[in-house]
Write a structure and sequence with these properties.
With 245 residues, the chain is α/β, with parallel strands linked by helices. It has a single domain, classed as Rossmann fold (3-Layer(aba) Sandwich). Helices cover 33% and strands 28% of the residues. It is globular, with a radius of gyration of 17 Å.
């Protein structure tokens, strides 16, 4: 195995990953298909617009929009090289998620997505809160916001002993940086690493309440096979939020 390329800024890491992003997605295809399946089952009829935050190469947003008849699609992608892979003529906002509240205009979206733990590449609680406040302001009155996060206590992925150790650490040493991890990807003979964060349910709900987002549903999706599971210990967490009534 070659040297590890370390990036403090996750956006720069995704610049480096851009050429192999499609292969990384194929490795987790069953999970990603499972997430899209659950979103498509919950998109209300008549939706006209979709905003995908951390859109990658844009393929996910286009698939979702085409299957539910959404005509207006905007992709938020701060990585220059990832954005360059999207089809020409499409709308791309080159903002980071936490910067969206500063965009001019008052456009609202019927569906907003922030998927594959994009929220976990935003560093610090304050910036994650800024991102979710921006989502709330961009969401239409009856719109839905879908976000999936890597679950900190996913026993099926991490194993019983490591998960138990993590839970005990969190219980006795509560602090903001609990859940901060090093995200790593293997690219041929090389490895890339950058900042990442894995979440508890209570942490996500705290962020949502502070951003005036109301939980509609939580779905547990197995990170290995994309199946819906009954226990949060068996997968990652997909959330469906609305604006607080």
């Amino acid at each position: 195995m070659g040297d590890i390329e370390q990036f403090h800024d996750p956006v720069l890491a995704y610049d480096r990953l851009s050429q192999t992003y499609a292969e990384l997605a194929r490795r987790r295809e069953r999970y990603l298909i499972g997430v899209e399946r659950e979103i498509l089952a919950r998109v209300p009829s008549g939706c006209a617009s979709l905003l995908d935050i951390g859109a990658g190469d844009g393929s996910r947003a286009l698939r979702i929009a085409s299957q539910v008849g959404i005509s207006r699609v905007v992709r938020v992608e701060p990585s220059e090289k990832m954005a360059a892979q999207t089809p020409t003529g499409t709308v791309i906002w080159r903002n980071r998620a936490e910067e969206l509240a500063n965009r001019p205009g008052d456009e609202k979206f019927d569906v907003i997505t922030c998927l594959w733990n994009v929220l976990g590449h935003i560093q610090g609680t304050a910036r994650r809160s800024q991102a979710l406040h921006a989502v709330k302001s961009l969401l239409s009155e009856k719109g839905k916001f879908f976000t999936d996060v890597t679950h900190r206590y996913n026993v099926r992925s991490y194993g019983l002993l490591p998960t138990t150790a993590r839970w005990l650490h969190d219980s006795f040493v509560p602090r903001e940086k609990n859940g901060d991890v090093v995200a790593r990807w293997n690219i041929g003979e090389s490895r890339i690493s950058t900042y990442g964060h894995v979440f508890t349910h209570s942490e996500v709900m705290h962020l949502a309440r502070n951003s005036e987002l109301q939980l509609e549903e939580r779905v547990v999706i197995d990170y290995e096979d994309g199946r819906v599971r009954g226990s949060a210990l068996q997968g990652n967490l997909l959330y469906v939020f609305r604006r607080h009534s």
